[in-house]
Design a protein that fits this description.
The chain is 74% helix and 2% strand. The chain is built from 16 helices and 3 strands. The protein has a 3-stranded antiparallel β-sheet. Helix 3 crosses helix 9, helix 6 packs antiparallel against helix 12 and helix 8 packs antiparallel against helix 12.
Length: 456
């Protein structure tokens, strides 16, 4: 009996069961959580707490299905490509939320509140991914290694000096992320996000996919449980199971995050949290939760390398594909090629997001992140959000907006100084990073003969 309960199919069934309440209550009944809804609305009486609970269960179950699908896919496609697909699906809800605001802005061309919300939601998601995602997962990995013996964790003497080693094959993602970050500093100078930005940023991501899809398929015998069981199937059923896991989990995550995020927003509003603050921080936190759950699952299996690869890949696709497609959605809604315009506050949000990204890339330039560096990322992120929240709660408009901008500029300067300091200290590591990236690209695109080897 115990052996039957441990069968991988039981685990899959348990994960599916977590999604059943959401499917039954929300999807089949067309539920919408809307504070302005009338009594005739099918599920207007569903409370925000119920929305958060049921939606959260669905996201949790789907995150496990998504992780199992990605691990299983590694038998048939390059690991980097499988992780890239996982990253896109895991952050798909963020695309949906941002696309909604970009569409509303396109329907009302020119500077608008919807355009500002699109930028706020996008920058919030990007900063959460690094400020909470990268830092918290690094700290969790170091803590978990005491039991799991994760070989990716390097124990060192000194205060908070233990570090997580990052896969050096992720150099392509880090280098492209650096290029996208450098470009992002110039985006506000153009008056908004336009089609030129789309061509550059989406082009970067297309180049990334073109390289990783040509990578080698590696045999990995480390899988256990559900992925090991599915990989043991013949090729047809195995590929079908991966497609089903990706399709079902992606659809549930896409659908569940909206009521989950909206429920959180309603709870926040009831507690007196300003709506704009909720859109920038609480909604993205909800939409990023599938990604963080997947990575925590991988770390718990002592697969921190794959987990961090997924986090870095997610940041790359959010910083390129997500930002680049906003102008496309806006233009479709407007009926002509246009630019998603935003105000000075959102320009400052883009600059601080780019500066945080620059500092985070500098941290990873030596292919590791220490506990000390993770805490620095976390403290900088949390302190900025807390200070800005205090400003909007205590200071009245328009002084609050200007003070918030000043806070953003101050933190932008801190991130830039820290990033520049690390880049100077690690210039040799950066040179090797660029060399590895160029070698990887040449090899994947068919010009890898006689390329130099870069020692680590």
């Amino acid at each position: 009996m115990a052996d039957r309960l441990r069968h991988p199919l039981v685990a899959i069934a348990a994960a599916l069961l977590l999604t059943v309440p959401f499917v039954a209550l929300f999807v089949t009944h067309g539920w919408h959580l809307d504070p302005a809804s009338t009594a005739e609305s099918p599920h207007a009486n569903v409370t925000p707490i119920a929305a958060v609970f049921v939606g959260g269960l669905a996201i949790l179950g789907s995150a496990f299905l998504l992780a199992w699908g990605a691990e299983t896919a590694e038998k048939d496609v390059p690991t980097a490509f499988a992780i890239a697909v996982l990253a896109v699906l895991a952050v798909a809800p963020e695309y949906a939320v941002d696309a909604l605001y970009a569409w509303q802005a396109g329907a009302d061309p020119g500077p608008s509140e919807a355009a500002n919300l699109a930028i706020a939601n996008m920058t919030g998601a990007n900063r959460i991914l690094i400020g909470i995602g990268w830092s918290a997962i690094a700290l969790f990995t170091i803590y978990r290694a005491k039991r799991s013996g994760d070989p990716a964790v390097r124990r060192r003497s000194g205060f908070l000096n233990d570090a997580v080693e990052i896969d050096r094959d992720i150099s392509l993602e880090i280098a492209l992320l650096l290029v996208a970050t450098a470009y992002a500093f110039f985006v506000p100078l153009g008056g908004g996000i336009g089609i030129v930005d789309t061509v550059v940023l989406v082009g970067l991501y297309a180049f990334y996919i073109a390289v990783v899809v040509r990578g080698d398929v590696e045999e990995d015998g480390a899988h256990v449980g559900v992925p090991a069981y599915l990989q043991s199937l013949s090729k047809g059923p195995r590929i079908a199971s991966v497609i089903l896991l990706f399709a079902y989990s992606g659809l549930i995550i896409f659908e569940a995050v909206h009521p989950f995020a909206l429920g959180l927003e309603e709870l926040g509003t009831a507690l007196g949290v300003p709506p704009f603050f909720m859109i920038q921080w609480i909604a993205p936190l909800a939409s990023e939760s599938p990604e963080l759950i997947v990575v925590a699952y991988l770390v718990n299996k002592a697969r921190s390398t794959a987990g961090f690869n997924a986090l870095i890949s997610s940041k790359l696709n959010q910083w390129t594909l997500l930002v680049g497609t906003l102008a496309v959605v806006y233009s479709i809604a407007a009926g002509h090629v246009g630019t998603l315009q935003f105000d000075q506050k959102q320009a400052a949000e883009i600059w601080i997001t780019a500066a945080q990204s620059l500092f985070a890339i500098a941290v990873l330039s030596n292919f590791e992140i220490s506990a000390r560096e993770a805490i620095t990322l976390l403290v900088l992120f949390v302190s900025q959000v807390v200070i800005e929240f205090a400003v909007i709660r205590v200071v009245s408009e328009p002084a609050a907006t200007q003070l918030s901008i000043d806070v953003l500029y101050a933190y932008t300067g801190i991130y830039l100084l820290l990033g520049a300091w690390l880049f100077v200290r690690r210039r040799e590591e950066v040179r090797r990073l660029v060399g590895r990236t160029a070698s990887t690209a040449r090899d994947a695109l068919g010009d890898g003969s006689d390329r130099p080897e870069y020692a680590d």
